[in-house]
Every structure is written in structure tokens, then in C-alpha cells.
Amino acid sequence: MDLEPVKSIRIYEDIVRQVKALIADGRLTSGDRLPPERELAERFRVSRTSVREALRSLQSRGLIEIRAGEGAFVRDVSVEALIEPLALVILPHREAVRELFEARLLLEPAIAALAARRASREEIAEMDRILREQAREVASGRTGMAQDSALHAAIAAAAHNRAIVRIVNALVDLLGQSREESLLTRGRPRRSHQDHRRIMGAIRRRDESGARRAMLTHLNAVERLVLGSPAKSAHAERARRSPDRKGRRR
């Protein structure tokens, strides 16, 4: 494998990018074993902690499988798992972004409710770990974007539905640039962390309706920042503009 030294500030994301490129190019295929953590750290010239974070991210996206005592292996990769490049086409179109947010508003509150019902103790502990890490990032003046993505992926995984995990990861990837822009707004990283704490509090209490409401509130706030207007159903907006049966605008 041809790997280059990592130069990005967000180190783990550069590792993820390079591994995804190798998979997309066919240089890593289903069943291939990745080099051990120590070797990857040496070849990327980064710490093993950064490698570990990258491997967790790749696993949450369904690109690799980590087997205890054996290592990390490339999974049978579907098209949606490599969907990020599609964002370059979709994101310039405001209506498309609005519709992606609408999809999140329909799916993620219900997913949070499922996570409140189904999450194991281990999964809740992992979400709490991510939340603590996000708190440290935000306190250091950073956006906490990596932890934001990881938490949403962990909540989806706790719903114990593989189709849901794939859909949410695809949506989060497609909206990555918009979400990052929202986190650059002054004070937004702290508020996002507070939103996540409320979501996690409800999941921890097994409060399905509370988790649903907290996630909906969080997503509405992000959409308002990205689109510059209160969250509105794209469906409802099109219906308002279209004529009714008597030819009148609604």
C-alpha cells in the first residue's frame, strides 16, 4: 500500500481519507487485513491513539471489521459506504440540502428513541466516552466535529438495525460540510455538546419520548444555522407553492 505522511490538523480524518481512497481504488478489497496499529502509526507518522480513532471511525461507517486478537479487516463495501464524494454534487444545491435535513428529521429522532430502548450498557458507556471526549475538544476551543459524527453513528448503531446504520452514516457523510460550517458559528460547539448531553441523558434513562424530543430539538437548531431559516418541511413547502385542484395557490 502507498501511504503518505499525515499533515492534517484533524489527524484521524486524514487517515480515514487515505484508507477510504485505497478501498475505492481497489487496492484494499473485501477480506484484506490492515497492518497492525503500530505499523500503521509508523507509516502514517502519527500516534497509535490517532490510528485507533481512525479505525473506530472506519468501523462505525461499515468499512472495516475489528476482530479481537486478529486485527482490522476490510468489509464487503457497499456503494453508500463510499458516498462522501456525492456531497460535492449535492451540497451546492440548497433544496437538496434541505431535503437531506428533512430525511434526518424523520429518521434520527426515531433512531434515538430506539437507542433508548435497545442500547446495551457497553454501548451507552461508549457514547458517554465520546461525549467526554467532545467536552475536552470543545473546552480546548475546537469544534468537536469528529466526536459529533462518532456520537450520531454510535446512537444509530445502538438501534441494532444495520439498514438504519447505513442510512444515517450516508446522511451524516453527505451533510458533513454543512455540519462543520454550523460548528464554526460562535458558541455552537458548546451548544451542540449540551444538546448531545440531553439526548444521552434520555437514552441513559431509557426515556424514548425524551430522546426523540431532544434529538429533534438538536437537528432543528443545526438546520436553522445551515439554511438560515427555521426548519421547514421541503414537502410542505412544495405543496404550498403548487396549485390545488381549483387552480389556486395554497
Outline the structure in words:
This protein has 250 residues and is mainly alpha-helical. It folds into 2 domains: 11-77, Arc Repressor Mutant, subunit A (Orthogonal Bundle), CATH 1.10.10.10; 83-236, GntR ligand-binding domain-like (Four Helix Bundle (Hemerythrin (Met), subunit A), Up-down Bundle). Helix content is 65%, strand content 3%. It contains 12 helices and 2 strands. The protein has helices at residues 11-24, 37-44, 48-60, 87-90, 94-118, 121-139, 145-157, 162-174, 176-183, 188-204, 208-227, 234-241, and strands at 64-67, 71-74. A two-stranded antiparallel ribbon has the order 1-2. Strand 1 (64-67) and strand 2 form a beta hairpin. Helix 5 (94-118) runs antiparallel to helix 8, helix 6 runs antiparallel to helix 7 (145-157) and helix 10 runs antiparallel to helix 11. The longest helix is centred in the middle third of the chain and has 25 residues, at 94-118. It is globular and about 45 Å long. Residues 79-92 and 230-250 have low confidence and may be disordered.
